[in-house]
Structure formats: C-alpha cells, structure tokens
Amino acid sequence: MMLKLAAAFFATLVLYGTFDLLFINLFAKAFIQKQVGPLLAEQPDLSAGIVFYLIFTAGLLYFCIYPAHSWQQAALNGAFFGLVAYATYELVNKALLAGWPLALVVVDIAWGIFVGAAVCSLSYLLLSRMAWTPVKR
C-alpha cells in the first residue's frame, strides 16, 4: 500500500512539475518579468519552490484525485482546487501589495484552473491504468 501511495505521489508530482515548469519557462517567463520584474529574485528560492510543489501535489491527490470516481470528476475537482490555490495567492497579493498587476492575477488564476484539471485527469487515468484504486471515502 505504501509503495503504491509513493508511486501515485511521484507520478502526480512529475506531471505537475512538468506542466508548471514548461509553462513558466516557455510561455510565462517574459510575461512575469514584465508584470513584476523588479520584485523577482535573481535566483529563485528552490527550497520554497520544492515545498510548494510537494504540498500542492499532496492536495491534488487528497482532495481531487482520490475522491474522484472518474477522470472527469478528477478534472473538475482539480480545476476547483487550482482556482482556490492560485486565487488565494494572487488575490492576497492584489489586496496587500501596491501595484500588483491585474493581468498577472487573471493569467495565474486561469493557469491554476487549467493545470489542476489537466494534472488531476491525467493522474487519475494513469493511476487507473496502474490498477491503483484510490482510497474512497
């Protein structure tokens, strides 16, 4: 059971990390630089990034993938989880930081919805093919 749980976590982490890093590096880097360039560190804090990826992946599994009874439900759960997580970050920044750009808020929340849905649906399908039966609550 523990090996299957670790495999599910690793597979979901790889999916999420791949999607997110491709999006950031291929599409969003110049946009983010334009929006909040002066606030960016020269080098990202990798330990903070890794902790975020681990927590977000655990949330996708626990709240979105495991409770789902189909890939469509996993996608819907993931879209909502992505909305909640990314909107929390962006809207708190918009509320508290002077000049936080609305364009970044909109793009990042849209990305959260998309990546949550995509990763959860793909992870659910992958885990189903691996004969992994998520714990049903």
Written overview of the protein:
The chain has one domain. It is built from four helices and no strands. It has helices at residues 2-36, 46-65, 71-96, 102-129. Helix 2 crosses helix 4. It starts with a helix and ends in an 8-residue tail after the last helix.
Supply the key terms.
137 residues; mainly alpha; 4 helices
Task: Produce the secondary structure layout.
Layout: H1 2-36, H2 46-65, H3 71-96, H4 102-129
Helix pairs in contact: 1-2, 1-4, 2-3, 2-4, 3-4
Q: Average the pLDDT over all residues and give the rounded result.
A: 95
Radius of gyration: 16 Å
Biggest sheet descriptor: none
Query: What is the succession of H and E elements?
Result: HHHH
**DSSP, total strands:** 0
Alpha-carbon distance between the two ends: 16 Å
Number of helical elements: 4
Taken as a percent bin, the fraction of beta residues is under 5%
**Whole-number tally of structural domains:** 1
Shape: elongated
Measured as a percent range, the helix fraction is over 70%
Please identify the structural class as seen in this structure: mainly alpha
Low-confidence stretches: none
